[in-house]
Amino acid sequence: MSQKTFWKIEYFGLCVNAFARKFRLTPQLAHNYLQKYEGLQFLNEFYDVEHTLPLADTLESLQKICARNGGSL
Q1: CA 27, 16, 38, 35 torsion: positive or negative?
Q2: Can you give the pLDDT at residue 53?
Q3: What is the pLDDT at residue 56?
Q4: 8 Å CB contact between 66 and 39
Q5: Which residues are within 8 A (CB) of 26 and not within 5 positions of it... i.e. 6 or more apart?
Q6: In this predicted model, what pLDDT tens digit does every residue of 21-54 receive, in sequence order?
Q7: Does an H or E element contain 36, and which?
Q8: pLDDT at 73 > cutoff 90
Q9: Buried b (16+ CB within 10 A) or exposed e, 32-41
Q10: SS percent in the chain: helix, strand, coil, step 5
Q11: Of 69, 53, 63, 51, whose CA–CA distance to 19 is shortest?
Q12: Which residue has the higher pLDDT, 61 or 4?
């Protein structure tokens, strides 16, 4: 596994757990929600930019992306 892949996986975990805390979900429910409404796809596609931003900004972006794709949190 490359170093970048390792850090990307760590970052995804951080974001999923923070999203779960913000919306009072279990990590599993947060992961399923983000997967269903394309939040994880967004993180993967824009990782190079998103991981340099404050976590609060990333969580806000995830909420907007998911809402745009049918999510209701």
Answers
A1: negative
A2: 97
A3: 98
A4: yes
A5: 20
A6: 999 999 999 999 999 999 999 999 999 999 999 9
A7: helix 27-36
A8: no
A9: ebbeebbbbe
A10: 75, 0, 25
A11: 63
A12: 61
| Structural domain boundaries in the chain | 3-68
Q: Please tell me whether residue 68 adopts helix, strand or coil conformation.
A: helix
Length of the chain, please?
73
Q: Report helix, strand or coil for 30.
A: helix
**Rounded Cα distance, 70 and 64, in Å:** 10
* Distance separating alpha carbons of residues 68 and 38, to the nearest angstrom: 9
pLDDT tops 90 at residue 1: no
Average pLDDT taken over every residue of the chain: 97
